[in-house]
Amino acid sequence: MAMIVEFGEILTDRERKNFAILDLIRRKGPITRTEISKETELNIVTVSNYINAYIQKGLVIEGGLDVSTGGRRPVVLELNPKAGYIIGVGLDLFSIIGILADLKANVLLKINKARPAGAESALLEALNEVIEELIAKSDLERSSIKGIGIGIPGIVDRKGGTIRWPQQMGSIYISTLRNMLEQKFGIPVFIENDATVAAFGEREFELESDVKNLIFMYSGVGCGIVINGQIYRGSTGCAGELGLPNLTSEEKEKWRGLARWQADLGLTEMAQEEIKKGKKDSKVLELAEGDASKIDSKAVIEAAREGDALAVSLVRKAGEELGVRIAYLVQVFNPEVVVIGGGIEKAGSVLLDEIKRVVRENIYLFDDLTL
After folding, report:
1. What pLDDT digit, counting tens, does each position of 33-60 carry?
2. Pure H helices in 139-225
């Protein structure tokens, strides 16, 4: 069971039991009290006491009767989807995506907006606007929205609710996003690193239940790690950050891609450099309306998918660099599955074939890995 609990938080015995029972009902409902008792190893009286409290609060509802193997047919239980609603916001290279869901993870509203370029302050303002729009369109009482979850890049202090983004020249931008949003909306806000959230979601909702070890490569500089079914964060909560910002100039030249913090693996920067060198017949420049300063990773990826020679070469270079990172991670963590997401995967086979080639050449037992 892969639950996300606030970093550094010590749960009481009752809180742990609440998490265990409610998460089990969420994942496996409809489910009987007896099945909950067996799964959680709590006695049936304890389980019944908790369930009765949930029913009184409207959090859990009783459904029909389960098939009986003898005696009275047991009543099945499931979460009440209308007991509360949740807002989730995440982003990839190109978009900010917001959803409103009920407690059974049914998506009721979805908003997809272009991710703004420029400073982090513009990104934070766009996140704020997405939340405002979801609340306005929901027609729900504010009190019925029980939480806002945000997956965002950077080094996240989950206890303090702050985000740190490494910048060029060693500077750091710090945002107190959680406090800002809680003060504005009056709703509890939970912030997590985007790659960690992606790994959690993949483990919970997309992959087979027997997959216990996986790495989610979220674009180019971060990864979410699941070990033995549990999210791995490291000692201070920032495991998985793959950028290497403090290299010498010689090392930066050798590890050109690895030295970048850019989530797009440097596609934008490299494309702009090549255009400035004279490769102006590229589809990349056309998609940027003839202005090299407007080139972004979306233009490079779109041009590569259309077969543009410059774009294809740059995407393959990015795939080679990402393949090196994945190969190292696979050798260290030995996962069953590596998932590539966050927007960079939209380059398709041009990128993925290069990644697979590099990983295959650099690890043992490639056939045992799903990539």
Report:
1. 999 999 999 999 999 999 999 999 999 9
2. 177-185, 194-201
* Alpha-carbon distances, residue 69 vs 7, 66, 72, 192, 360 (angstroms): 43, 10, 9, 44, 51
Give the domain-ending residue among 187, 212, 241.
Answer: 187
Rg, Å, the chain Cα set: 23
> DSSP readout, 16-57?
HHHHHHHHHHHHH-SEEHHHHHHHHT--HHHHHHHHHHHHHT
Tokens of 242: 């793959």
Could you report the per-residue pLDDT of 197-224, keeping only the tens digit for each?
A: 989 888 887 777 788 899 998 876 788 9
pTM of the model: 0.80
| Per-chain mean pLDDT for the chain | 83
192 close to 156: Cβ distance less than 8 angstroms: yes
Domain limit, last residue, from 40, 58, 80: 80
The domain of 64 spans: 13-80
Q: Which of 116-120, 186-190, 259-263, 292-296 has the lowest mean pLDDT?
A: 259-263
For residue 363, what is the enclosing H or E element? Answer: none
- Looking at residue 259, its pLDDT comes to 44
φ and ψ of 279, to 5 deg: -85, 65
How would you classify the pairing of strands 162-166 and 155-157?
antiparallel
What is the CA angle 230-95-113, rounded to 5? 125
35-55 core/surface letters (b: 16 or more CB in 10 A; e: else): bbbebbebeeeebeebbeebe
Distance CA 147, CA 138 (A): 14
How many angstroms separate the CA atoms of 103 and 54, rounded?
13
- Other C-beta atoms closer than 10 Å to the C-beta of 333 total 16
59 shares its domain with 90? no
Contact 340, 355 (CB under 8 A): yes
Reading the block at residue 298, the tokens are 């979306």
